[in-house]
Amino acid sequence: MAWSSPDVVIIGSGMGGATLAASLAPTGAGILVLERGHQIPDDAPARDPDRIYKNSAFRSDETWLDGEGRRFSPGNYYNVGGNTKLYGAVLYRYRWQDFQAMEHLGGISPAWPFPYETLAPYYDAAEALYQVRGDFSQDPTEPPHAGPYPYPAVLDESALAEVRQRLEKAGLHPSALPLGVDLERWLSNGSDGWDGYPDTRSGKMDAETCGLAVALSHDNVRLETGARVSGLSATLDGRRIDSVTYVQAGEAITVRPKIVALAAGAVQTAALLLSSGLANSSGQVGRNFMNHNATAMLAYDPRFVNDAVYQKTFAINDWYLADGENGPPLGNVQLLGRVVPKILKATVPSMPMPVAAHLSRHAVDFYAITEDLPDPESRVVLNGGDIQLLWRRSNMEAHRRLVKRMKQALRDAGFPLVLSRLFDGRVPSHQCGTARLGDDPATAVLDPDCRSFDHENLFVTDAAALPTSAAVNPSLTVAALALKAGDAIRRELGA
């Protein structure tokens, strides 16, 4: 294989890049995957809350600028498998209504250029690839499926079964989270949750252990780590991407692929396109940055004993499509992974450890998510040699109402004290939208197959392509879009 001129170069090994590689590997095409990070080693401190939440052992030392020009650590991870190595393994489909125009308190969430039914078969394939555990019959907001999930839902631990019953008595309808985790394998490596903990190939279904593993089982796929892409260049007529240059061990290497797929993450993808001056005839690259409005909630009851290990098994979608009073949507609430005393202490350093231990033992933890709406002025820009994130939160009144509703429901369920904390706007998660797909090249960067309107051999297959953020975890939708793009690339390679 002549790796200086591969058929396909994929930039990034996270959910979008790894899934695309798995889709294309059976074609026999030469596929080069470039990953700026390295594999997390087997002996990494993967189950140590102090190393993860206090000392940030796995977080990059990279800094960005916020809207005020202040430096911050963005909480992104650069390693084989990308951010999925530390994700909560929640693999939701967007709801059927998420593909339609929806009115929110903060404005309109625009329609996608195709309906749910177009992406449904790719959701099926993505759930098979990532071995999803779930039971969609429990959730009335779940869109149609062709068949059951590949595996049954992960069961609630006894303490969480009690919480579920309390919430049901309070009038809510908890439903199983769709999860990509082999519980037996995960727990055989330690009695810890998986949400926020790095996976050392020990039971979490992530971009490395599923998508990339399938791809690398084919001899025509090659992974290069420590390979940071520095630029793309186009042909003289601008119609195609001619070359990709990356730096590895201090050496600049240029390759000339037939197809380029950019999957470096919503912020890094936008930054690379901006620095290369590509795919931006619409002026939309970097714009419409979205990030879920999210709040952590801790519900305390001194009579309740939480002896759960992993905790993250169910969600509340009662207010996903409407607020319960015929008003606009509010969002999703799901269990967080178990917040152990060391995590509480790292989050609130002034809290005495005995207090953290008491709260953790007698509380249950939730995560409230509300859709962030696309706004051209919410954007990623380059400021000298720095990435600057100009995030303009939207739809916050809906988020406040969601948190208020959930707090009242938890009090009705017997938790007299509910603490909450809005996630810092300078520490983004579920980033998306910076190179969105659409029908109109004047307002979108990509066509419905995730192909650049400007360059016929350039695709974007990460969360940058998402035209809306919805209010559920985006990983499975990113995987489904990558599989859809994979079909388009297959046709291109065949031609």
TrEMBL record:
Positions of transmembrane segments: none
The protein's name in its UniProt record: GMC family oxidoreductase
The cofactor(s) it depends on are: FAD
Q: Which residues form the signal peptide?
A: none
Question: What organism is the protein native to?
Answer: Martelella endophytica
Keyword Disulfide bond assigned to the entry: answer is: no
The record ties this protein, via InterPro entries, to:
FAD/NAD-bd_sf, GMC_OxRdtase_N, GMC_OxRtase_C, P2Ox-like
Q: Taking every annotated instance into account, which residue ranges of this chain make up the domain Glucose-methanol-choline oxidoreductase N-terminal? A: 192-293
Q: Where is the Glucose-methanol-choline oxidoreductase C-terminal domain?
A: 387-482
Q: Name one GO molecular function term.
A: flavin adenine dinucleotide binding
SUPFAM superfamilies noted in UniProt: FAD/NAD(P)-binding domain
The family note in this entry says: Belongs to the GMC oxidoreductase family.
Q: Does the keyword Flavoprotein apply?
A: yes
Task: Say which domain of life the source belongs to.
Answer: Bacteria
| UniProt keyword list | FAD, Flavoprotein, Oxidoreductase
- In Pfam terms, one family for this protein is GMC_oxred_N
